[in-house]
Design a protein that fits this description.
homodimer, 385 residues, Rossmann fold, Dehydroquinate synthase-like, alpha domain, two-stranded antiparallel ribbon, 9 strands, 45% helix, globular
Chain lengths: 385, 385
């Protein structure tokens, strides 16, 4: 096992009718900015529940945070917080709203140009406003981690930052709030949390028995709830399990003490930035090709994945590995998520541009062994056409 | 899944040579009391490493905390902290030293008689000194939770308390510090963490897929490392996995959102209080009988345990359940831990006294359904003779 530090102070408030509890967890005299996305949180009543829970408090609102939240939009929120001297943020939404809120929290009192926070990946974040979240879309794990990914529209750049200053102080996870989600978003969330787990698991053996068992538990559970969690809209137990899985897939726990990959994510971000394809869908396109191209480096863990997650015990090693990758593709397809770039009408002529963007962003040595060069990324994209 | 709150702000600093980092995590001008147990931490050099890491700081020392730490001893430490105006505690040891330190942390500024903290099980703890830990014995999980169990010698009472004020601010887990442990203590730690997991898992189904998978992952890993982790003293990877398993077995994670039992622990505590038998050894005596006596209430989870932890798929339900319980006994025995009271020369005449003590402590309706009456506890003890 590798040496590690694990620290995660976010309080999770999980279950039915838990939004009512948020006032207990926000300082009494806080001047709050509630941030949200589109109209769905209004229509499904979540915003109303939050307003009711905060009745009598000082609350301003900032709506319109996009999926793939933009620097340009968020800087408007930063201006409001500064002007109105607000001191507590409350994100109501999915990963995009929460990621955006983390950026606002760090940017408000940032000493230099806030875009620095992204270009330095968060190392220069020395303070942030406290904030809580009310999660409506299980997917990114942002509700219990210190990561954020922001897009700059002007330059079509999508960059991430991390800082221990931007753990939410609390996150409310009420599975009933997912009942009205578009099925496409639920499917994306399942794929996203699956790939988050894979990025921390499918590398090389590191004598980390529990991290492996926990990751396999998340993967097997996702396979088990599979398409049902999407179609059975009001099945509380399925949605509750999915919501907790998505949080645990990226709260630092399964990644503590083990090598991590993230090459699939980095390539996926470039596809989203240039072609505006949902984050999770880019992962479903990149991952299977990544696993095939990097089969030798990942052989031992691919065999373990085949055996423990997919119960594949027969055939040669290569047959079991190919069956596991093929099952992974089938899993995404069962969620009605394509696994080829051609499904998005992206052809070979797109690859040069994507590789150029990876180069611009310094993504020239990705993966758990930093051996995913631009050439390897090119082969992965070619295999994903 | 049941509604739950999960909150655990302890920073884990895990791996080789990590004691050197503790100074970074203690406030610069802290007046520190280092608490420890017997002479082993001195002999194996752990205390020396801590002293070296804190060179130049204000540090006083308090040794001699017993296994099953006593109120009487700990109140001496409380007096020193008060007299010397110390403001940070550092526990160096296993669960007993850490549990004791939690009590000291809560007692120093407690508004009334500190024994109240135990008799009210911590509900009246409104503040505590901050403290960190350097763990030398993986077993109780105390390094990453808010529980503590204290014994009053005078009255032979063993009572627990819990409070969100007594999470360690950090815990250093260096697996090499376990190399010099007596094998008996390592065996006890394996059994203890196994039963901690069982208490939160082997109840009734609650649609908590991940909690089940995580608990099964811990149990399977313990079975896998089994006696090897005890006998292969300097096998870093085995000891590292065991150390992290023991922490995760009782840090609140696998118990969030599921029913919990703890009847085995409550009965075990009475056996320790009266007969001074190691905590873990009392659990190994009580658990198998508890599972047999409560087979019907636990049927569904016993079958799941048989299938997923022990790979038992053949035979009738009752055969699989008995095989799983029998394997559990075999597992304890493989650690050279007996599973019968007779091994400690405790006979039928002891039972009335143990039941009377359970009654005195209000332990009249134990277990996940509060249906472990004194009569059921009696039958469990009789079956464990």
């Amino acid at each position: 096992m590798q040496n590690f530090q694990y620290y995660n102070p976010t309080r999770i408030i999980f279950g039915k009718n838990t939004i009512a509890k948020i006032a207990e967890h926000i300082p009494e005299h806080a001047r709050i900015l509630m941030l949200y996305g589109g109209s769905s949180a209004e229509k499904n009543g979540t915003l109303g529940e939050v307003r009711f829970a905060l009745a009598g408090r000082t609350v301003q609102e900032f709506g319109g945070i996009e999926s793939n939240p933009t620097y340009e939009t968020l800087m408007q929120a930063v201006e409001i917080v500064r002007r109105e001297k607000l001191d507590f943020l409350l994100a109501v939404g999915g990963g995009s709203v929460i990621d955006g809120t983390k950026f606002v929290a760090a940017a408000v009192n940032h000493i230099s140009d806030p875009w620095d926070i992204l270009t330095t990946h968060g190392v220069n974040v020395t303070q942030a406003l406290p904030f809580g979240t009310v999660l409506t879309l299980p997917a990114t794990g942002s509700e219990m981690n210190s990561f954020s990914v922001i897009t700059r529209s002007e330059t079509r750049e999508k960059l991430g930052f991390a800082s221990p200053r931007v753990y939410p102080s609390f996150s409310v996870l009420d599975p009933t709030k997912t009942f009205t989600l578009p099925l496409r978003q639920v499917a994306n969330g399942v794929a996203d949390s699956f790939v988050h787990t894979i990025e921390q698991y499918l590398t090389y053996p590191a004598d980390a028995m529990v991290q492996d068992r926990f990751a396999e538990g998340l993967l097997k559970s996702l396979v088990e709830i599979g398409p049902k969690v999407i179609t059975e809209r009001e099945n509380y137990d399925l949605r509750a399990n999915f919501m907790w899985i998505a949080t645990l897939a990226l709260n630092g726990l399964i990644g503590a003490g083990v090598p991590q990959d993230w090459a699939t994510h980095m390539i996926g971000h470039e596809i989203t930035a240039r072609y505006d394809i949902d984050h999770a869908r880019t992962l479903a396109v990149v991952l299977p090709s990544m696993l095939r191209i990097r089969k030798e480096a990942k052989r031992a863990k691919l065999l373990q994945y085949a055996a423990r997650v997919w119960n594949l015990h027969d055939g040669t090693e290569d047959e079991r590995i190919e069956a596991a990758i093929s099952n992974t593709e089938g899993f995404f397809q069962s969620l009605e998520i394509p696994t080829r770039l051609s499904a998005y009408e992206i052809g070979p002529d797109a690859i040069d541009g994507l590789i150029a963007q990876l180069n611009v962003h310094g993504m020239t040595a990705l993966g758990e062994k930093q051996d995913v060069s631009l050439d390897v990324s090119r082969r992965v994209l070619e295999a994903a056409l």
